[in-house]
Amino acid sequence: MPDSVNIAFASDDNFIKYTAVTLASILRNFKNSTRKLNIFILTSDPISEVDLTKLLDLYKIREFDLKNITVDASSFSELKTTPGISIATYFRLYLHELLPDSITKVLYLDSDLIVLKNIEELFDVNLGENFFGGVQDSRSEDYNVKFGLPKHTKHINAGVSLINLSAIRKFDFLGEIDKYLEAKKYVITLGDQQIINTVFSDQILYLPPIWNIHGSMFDLDWCKINAGLVNTFTIDELRDAAEAPAIIHYTFKRKPWISSDHPLSDYWYEYASLTEYFANDTFNSRTTTRKNTFKLNGDLMPSSKLRKKIDGYIKSIIQLRKTRLNVDKLISDPKSSANYNLIKATTFQLQNTIISSSAAKTVTSAVELLDQIPEYATILTNCENRDLDGGFHENIKTLLKTPNIGRDFDVSEVNATMIAVQRLGQKEFIETLYCAAAYSKPHFYVETSFFGALAPYFHKDVPAKYRRCFGYILDDLGYYYDSRLPSRLERILNSEIGDISEDEKTRSKELIKKIIDLGITKYNVGLGNRTMNIDNDSVLVIDQKRNDASIEFGAASSKTFDIMLASAIRENPDSKIYFKTHPDNSGNELLLNDPKVEVIPENVSVTALLDQCRSVYVVTSQLGFEALLRGKEVNVFGLPFYSGWGLTKDRQKLARRDKTRTIEELFYGACIRMSAYVNPDTGNLVELEDALDYILTCRTEIDQV
Question: CA dihedral in degrees (433, 437, 440, 444; nearest 10)?
Fold first, then answer.
C-alpha cells in the first residue's frame, strides 16, 4: 500500500475556486488516516499568489502537501470537450510523465464534484494491470454507438479516474493517443474521456457507482427507462448508490454555481462555505432542502423540469432586405403549405445568387473545393448535430479538417457554409443559403458519393462503426441531382474539362469492372444479399422513396412512377417485367396486379438483378447509373445527373446538356473528379481504389462479428 494518497486536479484561472471546494470536501472527510495527502494541481499557467493563498487556507481543515505543475497542452487546444469543461482536462493524459516516478498511482478528480467519504478507500482499490479505474458513464452504451465501439465496451465517466501510472509507464501510452488523434482529432466531441475510453477500453476496471454519481442517476424516472439500456447498471445498483453516495459529480449544466436544480446542490454549498472563495456567500437564493434527497416514498428523487431550448437562429442580418423578409416569414412556419411556393422561389433565388458569385471560378475537382477551406474553419450547415457528432456524416469533419461544423454559429463567426441535405421546408436550410448568398461566404453542397458508404445509419443490426459515410460528392454550385440549376459537375461534363486522357479512361474502366465484379453499390452491408435468377431479356423497373429529394429536383413526382411502370409494360410486350420496390413504399397496387409484373422481394440483391436484365426503367435512381456501368439499356423518366449525355433513353430533355459523353467520362467526373474519400481508421484522404478496398475490408469484418 502506498505511503501517500495522491490526488490530481486539472484547473485554470476560471475553475480554481471550484477546485478549492472539491478539495475542501476531501479534506473534511479524510478522517482517521495517518497517510500523507499529496495534492497535484495541473494548470497551463502558474497559480496566482492570491489563489495559492486561498488554497492553502484549507490547511485549517487538514494538513496536505500542495504542488502546482504547469503543463503545455497546446497540442489539444483545437480539440473539443464537454461544454463547460476546459482544455485543462487533457492534462490528465500526461500524468505519468508529469508526476515523479515514485508516484505509481494517482486519483484524478474533476473540479465539479464533492467527496462525502474517505477518499483513501477509493485510492486503495487494486487496479491490477489495468490503466484506469472508474465508474461506468450513465450513458456508456450511447457513447459506444457514437464513437463506433462495440456494444458493452467499457466506458467510464473520466471525471473520477484512478490511474495506474506504473503500468502506463511500461507502455507507449502517448504514442497510442497520437495515433488516435491523427485519425480522429476532428471528430472528438467528449474530450479526453473519449480518448481514454476509445483507445484503452480493454484496460479499464469498473468501480462501484457510489464513487461517481453523475448525470441523471438520481432521477428514478430516467433510471427506470434507461438502466440496462444506455448503460449496464441495474435499478438496484443505482438506488443503492444514490442513497449513500461517496462522490457527487455535478455534470453538464447542473452545477450548483450555475443553478440549483440538482437535488443535491446544498452539499456543494456546504463545502463551498469552507473556502475563502465562497466564505461570505450565504447561498440564500440557491439552497435546497436535503431531507428528501435520496428518497421520496421509497423512490429516488423525481426528475427536474426540462428546460426549453433557446432558438439561436440568426436575427441580425440586414442585407438583401426583401429576401430577408421572406426568409423571416418562411422560418417562422417553414412547413406551411401556404408558404411552400414562396419557399421554392426564395431558395431558388438564393441558390442563383450563390451561382452568380461562384460560376466564374475555375474548379476542376472536389479536392480544389476542399483546399479553399482552411483547417479548423467554422462552417454553418443545415445538417443535424446528431448526424455530425458520431452520426452518419461524422467523417465530413475529417474531410474538411475541422470540428467546427454546426447549426448554431453567428454569421460573424462563419468562414464557409455547407448544405448537407436538400430540405426546402427546413429553417436551417433557408438560413444557411441566406448566409452564403448575403455575405458571399464560400459555399458548397455535400452528399454521399455513389460508392461511399457501407450501411444507412438507422440499420441498427449493423455495428455503429460501419454506419458512417466515408465518401462525398462535393459541389459549389448545386446538388448534382438538382436539375433546376447547373451544378459544377454538369458544367465540367459540358466543357472540355470533362474530357479524359487514355490513362484516365483505363483507370475508369478498371474501377468500373471492380465495382461490378464485387457487387459494390451505394450501401454495401445490412441490406439484401439474396440472389435471384431472372431472364436475360427481362426488364427491371426501379422504385424509389417518394420523398427523396432527387425526385422533385429531377423534374418528377409520384405520378411519374405510375407512368414509368405503365410504359415498361406497354413497350416490352414479350419481356418479363420485374419491379424492385422500395421498402418505404407500398407501390401501385393496380399496376402491380398486371400478370406480367413480378415484385422482387426486399432482401434480393439489386446488383445481381442489374447484371442479368436487358433493360432498366428509372426515374432518378442511382441504380440507373449503375446499370449504365454494366452497359444496360436505361430508360429515364426524370432528369438525373446521368441523363442527357447520349447514354440513356430519355423521356425528358434538358437543353443545357448539349455534349455527348462516354460512360468512362461520366464515371470519372462524378466518382473521381468531384468526389472525395476518407479512410475513417486513419483520417487520411484516399483515392476511390482505396475506398473500395475499405468496403471489402469492412464486409469481412462484419461477417466475422
Answer: 40
Tell me which DSSP letter residue 147 carries: T
Q: Report the side by side order of strands in the sheet with 65-70.
A: 65-70, 36-43, 4-10, 105-109, 160-164, 132-134, 204-206
What is the tens place of the pLDDT at every residue in 447-478? 999 999 998 887 888 888 899 999 999 999 99
Q: DSSP character for 520?
A: -
Kindly report the length of the chain.
Answer: 705
Give 128-167 pLDDT, tens digit per residue: 999 999 999 999 999 999 999 998 999 999 999 999 999 9
Q: Which pairing describes strands 379-381 and 416-419: parallel, antiparallel, or unpaired?
A: parallel
CA end-to-end distance (rounded Å), the chain: 42
Q: How far apart, in whole angstroms, are the C-alpha atoms of residue 230 and residue 642? A: 44
Q: Nearest-CA neighbor of 627 among 640, 188, 255? A: 640
β-strand 105-109 against 160-164: which pairing, if any? antiparallel
Q: Is the dihedral of CA 424, 430, 434, 435 positive or negative?
A: negative
> 494-518: b or e for each residue (b if 16 or more CB lie within 10 Å)?
beebbbbeeeebebbeebbebbbee
> Which amino acid, 231?
N
Exposed, middle or buried: residue 324 (CB in 10 Å: 0-12, 13-18, 19+)? Answer: middle
Burial 608-636 (b: 16+ CB within 10 A, else e): bbbbbbbbbbbbbbbbbbbbbbbebebbb
Q: What is the pTM of this model?
A: 0.85
